[in-house]
């Protein structure tokens, strides 16, 4: 091989290695956090007498110029800068000269990157939490309109008992409330500043970590420098929290897909969130809920990916953790747009109350009420009442009726043990009466549903 070819190969390999090693093309997402952290660090260095006032002011002015350049699209990100930290520092030094080189005193890229990343995660934790609150409010609003609207409550995707649609909506409000509380808890647990941990063991410079922590909005500094630079639990937590919330989004999305089908026709989605078929103009596809459902697998992958990166990493910092950010950025964007879209889908969907009520007459939803009545009024063992109810259901099937439509004579003829049953049972078998009979705390009666709505309204007001 000629010398020229060898040199070309070396240059190519060097370029490939630079691209492989660099993270600036994705971690530039952290530019605002990096500049915020650098301003806090330089302010602390000035307070501690490590940095002159002139240098501190030049650094602050220069950092604000860098921020403006990035936000205006005038900043050139280069592979040779390797990461956002060096990109910002290099440009800062170009602008203000040697003062820019003093900025990195008493810190390492190890604590700098984890501080930037933690700031990003904390900010997104708060904003996603607010989106969840908005979505919960929407579910509560829909629930408030449908506390008497009957819908089949299902188990195993089979009709089970009559409930009201508002009650069903509140089930999702509860799921997303738990998500809200997970993000809230994570924020509190992770609101500690790693800045000042340096490479892994702290620094001999007389720094004040309390100062930078306070400036950046953290509760206090992290306790242990080595743990701080290698910790990515906060990133795993936001990925887990997002994955759980997306799982809940996928569940309501599945129900929307089902409910909007011809077989159900419980709801109709706005044309904005459903599209016509490319060859069948009569057909409207629930594309948006399907996409929401599908995005769940994407965020699960990001969570498992970071778990795998962190598995068996020795202390302290390792380059492996450069792989921690892209999955988090992707999952954050996915949950943000998913929550926004789902909120609009739920707000704009049209509820077909009549179809829901008609569906309640399929599957003998008030059968359990007959068994409960026999236990309470006839003093029967539940298992005996259960088998008598099976006989009544069999009679209803033979007559092609729902159990709620049977006459007292048809009920009595179903089993000799109830041939003198009181006509009062007909009131209990009524579908709306069956729904309203479930008055235990957390039950589906209109009264209980309304009480749950009031609890949610109080909670939302106080958040």
UniProtKB/TrEMBL annotation:
BP term (GO), one: L-arginine biosynthetic process via ornithine
Q: Which GO terms describe its molecular function?
A: argininosuccinate lyase activity
Q: Which Pfam families does this entry report, sorted A to Z? A: ASL_C2, Lyase_1
* EC numbers, comma separated: 4.3.2.1
Catalytic activity, per the record?
Answer: 2-(N(omega)-L-arginino)succinate = fumarate + L-arginine
Using the record's annotation, list all stretches that form the Fumarate lyase N-terminal domain. 12-301
DNA repair among keywords:
no
Keyword Transcription assigned: no
* Annotated pathway: Amino-acid biosynthesis; L-arginine biosynthesis; L-arginine from L-ornithine and carbamoyl phosphate: step 3/3
What domain of life?
Bacteria
Q: Where in the cell is it found?
A: Cytoplasm
Mind telling me which GO cellular component terms the entry cites? cytosol
Chief subcellular location equals cytoplasm
> Residue ranges of the Argininosuccinate lyase C-terminal domain?
365-436
Q: What class of enzyme is it?
A: lyase
Which protein family is it in?
Belongs to the lyase 1 family. Argininosuccinate lyase subfamily.
UniProt-recorded name of the protein: Argininosuccinate lyase
Native source species: Malaciobacter halophilus
| Lineage of origin | Bacteria, Pseudomonadati, Campylobacterota, Epsilonproteobacteria, Campylobacterales
């Amino acid at each position: 091989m000629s010398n020229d070819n060898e040199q070309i190969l070396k240059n190519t390999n060097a370029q490939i290695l630079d691209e492989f090693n660099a993270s600036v093309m994705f971690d530039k997402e952290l530019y605002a956090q990096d500049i915020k952290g650098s301003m806090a660090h330089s302010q602390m260095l000035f307070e501690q007498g490590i940095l002159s006032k002139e240098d501190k002011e030049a650094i602050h002015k220069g950092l604000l110029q860098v921020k403006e350049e990035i936000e205006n699209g005038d900043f050139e990100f280069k592979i040779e800068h390797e990461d956002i930290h060096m990109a910002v520092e290099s440009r800062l030094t170009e602008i203000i000269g040697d003062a820019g080189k003093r900025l990195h005193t008493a810190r390492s890229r190890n604590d700098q990157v984890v501080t930037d990343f933690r700031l990003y995660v904390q900010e997104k934790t708060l904003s996603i939490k607010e989106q969840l609150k908005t979505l919960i409010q929407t579910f509560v609003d829909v629930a408030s309109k449908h506390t008497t609207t009957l819908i089949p409550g299902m188990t195993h995707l089979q009709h089970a008992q009559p409930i009201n649609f508002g009650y069903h909506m509140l089930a999702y409000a509860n799921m997303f409330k738990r998500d809200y509380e997970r993000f809230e808890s994570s924020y509190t647990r992770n609101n500690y500043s790693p800045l000042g941990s340096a490479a892994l063991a702290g620094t001999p410079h007389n720094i004040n970590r309390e100062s930078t922590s306070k400036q950046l909005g953290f509760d206090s500094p992290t306790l242990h420098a080595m743990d701080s630079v290698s910790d990515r639990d906060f990133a795993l937590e936001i990925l887990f929290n997002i994955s759980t919330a997306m799982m809940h989004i996928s569940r309501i999305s599945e129900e929307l897909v089902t409910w909007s089908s011809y077989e159900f026709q419980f709801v109709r989605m706005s044309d904005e969130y459903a599209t016509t078929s490319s060859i069948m103009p009569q057909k409207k596809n629930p594309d948006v809920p399907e996409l929401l459902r599908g995005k769940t697998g994407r965020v699960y992958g990001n969570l498992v990916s970071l778990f795998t990166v962190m598995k068996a990493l020795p202390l302290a910092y390792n380059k492996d953790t450069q792989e921690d950010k892209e999955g988090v950025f992707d999952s954050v964007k996915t949950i943000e747009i998913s929550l926004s879209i789902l909120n609009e889908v739920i707000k704009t969907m049209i509820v077909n109350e009549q179809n829901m009520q008609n569906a309640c007459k399929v599957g003998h939803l008030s059968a359990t009420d007959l068994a409960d009545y026999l236990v309470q009024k006839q003093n029967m063992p539940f298992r005996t009442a259960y088998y008598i109810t099976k006989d009544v259901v069999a009679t209803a099937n033979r007559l092609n009726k729902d159990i709620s439509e049977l006459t007292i004579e048809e009920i009595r003829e179903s089993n000799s043990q109830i041939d003198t049953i009181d006509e009062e049972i007909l009131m209990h078998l009524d579908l709306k009466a069956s729904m309203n009979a479930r008055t235990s705390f957390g039950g589906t009666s209109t009264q209980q549903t309304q009480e749950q709505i009031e609890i949610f309204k109080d909670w939302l007001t106080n958040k």
